[in-house]
Structure formats: structure tokens, C-alpha cells
Amino acid sequence: MTKTRGAVLTRRAMASLLGLAIAGGAVAQTVDDQTLPDNTGLNIPANLQIFGKLDPNIRKATAIVNETVITGTDVDQRVALIAAANNAKLTDEDRERLRLQVLRQLIDETLQIQQAKTADIVVSKEEIDQAIGRVAKQFNKSPADFAAWLREQGSSDRSMRRQIEGELAWNRYLRKRVEPFVNVGDEEVKAIIDRLQAAKGTEEYHLAEIYLPANSDQQAQVEGQARQIIGEIQKAQAPFSYFARNYSAATTRSVGGDLGWVRAAQLPEALSAASQQMQVGQVAGPIPIPGGFSIIYLVDKRQVLTADPRDARLSLKQMTIKFPANTTQAQATARTAQFATEIRKLQGCGSVEKVGQTLNAEVVQNDTVRIRDLPGPLQDIMLKLQVGQASPPFGSPSEGVRTLVLCGRDDPVSGQLPGAEQIQNQLEQQRVNLRAQQALRDLRRDAVIDYR
């Protein structure tokens, strides 16, 4: 079992639209005779023979999927973005392995888009633009600035648009062709509610997964790939969901591998055993399961229908001191020590603004923070604080040093049973995911794929 704490992000790649723009605006012309205009200044024979054929808009294909071309450029640009997003320096071996993984993802995307079109599903440019805008916002950039950043990384937004199109088209296909045929009866829902009541006090886990399929001939190869992915997760700053979106073959890929809250008894035996040994923030794998290997990430855990102190909502004031760009480490250490001394003099939340003024500190307030939503080390600290007390200083010279002052706490009530509708929706989604996996396997099996 290996350990890491996730964070998140995105990936993708693209090729220039210039060729399409030129092709779209060109008008073919015919010449009736073999004569050449006299004003060309070129000594070109009238009766010439072309040896070979050249089309500058055609790139060498890596694969042709049911007549849809996936070029080496498509693969390279998405690889470039993955490396840039993770600030990773790829060795030649790493890059080649990542190319193979990206190629499989592009093939799946192509199959999903093609299948959606058979159901008359079209994702509009406006919808993709909106999704691109949301992604750009995560990077604190405008869509135009984000597109420019992608180009700087050796990528572009075409591959990102392609991936967004694939995810939206496939989700709509499932809603149109799969979900209407998934039914959950009232008796099934009642049985789950009864089991929840019987399981009160037992632990359940919020898990995310990366699933890698493998037949009997691929076991060693896929297990090696899984170990490489775990290594990348450990080295990277991106969250687990980022890697799930890139590498997982499960339909949960579109939601960052999120499995939601599950109990050990609901999981395959190998995954159940691993989840019970994990701490929040850990990654485990590769775990052999029927059909392949799984990598799982423990997002959180709790007890069924039992109030969890970490669900308490806090009223907080945060006081932050910033450092000038040219601050030395010694100066930062001295000011942080002064900050810690002043924190110990606080007399409840009412004195935070006054102390903040003396320190030239920024003060902000939030009344809706759950302990569960704070980083792990801060969760432990806030659980022990009394109202009016402050946390020790935390942060960095580059981002500022801060403290959290506890102004109030609303403790959680006893855990509540989920409603029948919520349980029904979860069951339906599980069955849709299963059928989606089967559908994608069928598409792969029936596809005509020409590797180049």
C-alpha cells in the first residue's frame, strides 16, 4: 500500500485549426488546356508528371478507428498537456508508456462519440465552450488565455474539446439508450434501508477508483502499468481524480473515478480488505480483481447512521500575514514568531480585528466550514479547540502565514437514513455504470481499428 494526498486538475491536447480554415475557404479551379500563364516566372513544363501524393493537412496516423483518424499529433499534444499539468519531467520510457495509455483513451473517446451519433446525439459548440470556460476558471484564466497557455505547453484546446465532447456525448447516450431500461423496485429500496439500519455504527468509505482491464495474457503488463500510474500519482501535484479521468477504463472516469460512499460488504473481497486497512488520503494498489486491476483512493470514511464530530460546522475567523517578495527566511521566521506570540494573547473572536490591525494582517470570516472539509492536520487541531481559541500558525512565506480562530461550533445531529429516492437513484446509477462498461467493451470488440 502506498500513500499520497490528492489534489485535482485536468489534461488534454490538440492540433492547429489553420489547415481546416484553409480547406474550408479554398475553391477548386479547372484549366481547360495545358498552357501555363507567361507571368509566373517559373520554368514549369506543361506536360508534367507528379511522383507521389502530398497533402499538407494529413498527419501520420497512429490509429484509424472505424475510419476516424487518430494522429500522432493528437497523442503527443495530450501527452504534453498531462506532463505540463503535473509539472513532470518525462523520461523517454515514461513518455512512451503514457503515449500508449493516451492512445487507448483516444480510441475509447472516438468509439463513444461515434456510438452517440448513431443515436442522433450532437454536442453543440456552445456547450463545449461553456465547459472550456469552467475548466479555464479552475486555472484562473480566461478561455483565450487558457488556450494560449495550452499552446505554450505544446498542446491546444482541440484535444480538450474532443475529450469534453466524448464525455458529454457518452453521458447523453447512456441517458437515452440505457437509463430508460434500468428499473429499481420499491422492495429493493426497502431492503437497503433495512440493511442500513442493521449496519448502524459500522464504517463506510468514500472511495475513488482507477480500473485497468486485463485478460490472462496481459496480467503482468497491466500490473506494471498500474504501478507506474501509482508512481506518477505520488510524484504529481494533481489529484487522484485527474489520473482517473486519464487512465481508468471504468465509466466512473467521467466523474474522476468517484465511487461515492460504500460499505466494505458492498465491495469485491480484495477491495473490501484494502479499504478497511487504509487511512484517509491513501492510495492502494494494484489490486487484482476479476477482469483486471484496481487502484483505489480513500477520500474519507465515517460510521453508518452515526454522528461524526468532523461534520460539525464551524464559525471561523482567519487572520493572515503576508510577506514582501524580497523577505529573507530569517525575516519570515522572526515575523511568524511574533505572529504566534500575538495569537496567544487573543481574547476570543471579538479581539481578532484589533490584533489584526496591529499586525497589518488580513481578516476574513466564514460561518459554514465543516471540519471534514479542512486538510487532515487542521481537522485534528480544530476538533480539540474550544470557542475563542486559535490554531497554531500555518502556511508558507510565499502564500502567507495564517491562523484560524474558532468563533462557534454547530455539532452534527445523529446520522440520518438516506431517503428512498436517494437510494433508488444510487442503485440506478450503479446499474447504468455496469451496462455502460458492457457497452464500451462491445464497441471495442466490434470496432475496426487499424494501428499504424
Task: Note down, in words, how this protein is organized.
- With 452 residues, this protein is α+β, with helices and mostly antiparallel strands.
- It folds into three domains: 2-17 and 54-175, Triger factor/SurA peptide-binding fold (Orthogonal Bundle), CATH 1.10.4030.10; 202-303, Chitinase A, domain 3 (Roll); 309-410, Chitinase A, domain 3, CATH 3.10.50.
- Helices cover 44% and strands 18% of the residues.
- It has 14 helices and twelve strands.
- It has a five-stranded antiparallel beta sheet, with helices on both faces. A four-stranded antiparallel beta sheet has the order 9-8-11-10. Strands 3-2-12 form a three-stranded antiparallel beta sheet.
- Helix 4 crosses helix 6.
- The protein starts with a strand and ends with a strand.
- Keywords: Chaperone, Isomerase, Periplasm, Rotamase, Signal.
- GO terms for molecular function: peptidyl-prolyl cis-trans isomerase activity.
- InterPro entries: OMP_Chaperone_SurA (IPR050280), PPIase_dom_sf (IPR046357), PPIase_PpiC (IPR000297), SurA_N (IPR015391), Trigger_fact/SurA_dom_sf (IPR027304).
- It holds the Pfam family SurA_N.
Brief account:
With 452 residues, this protein is an alpha+beta fold.
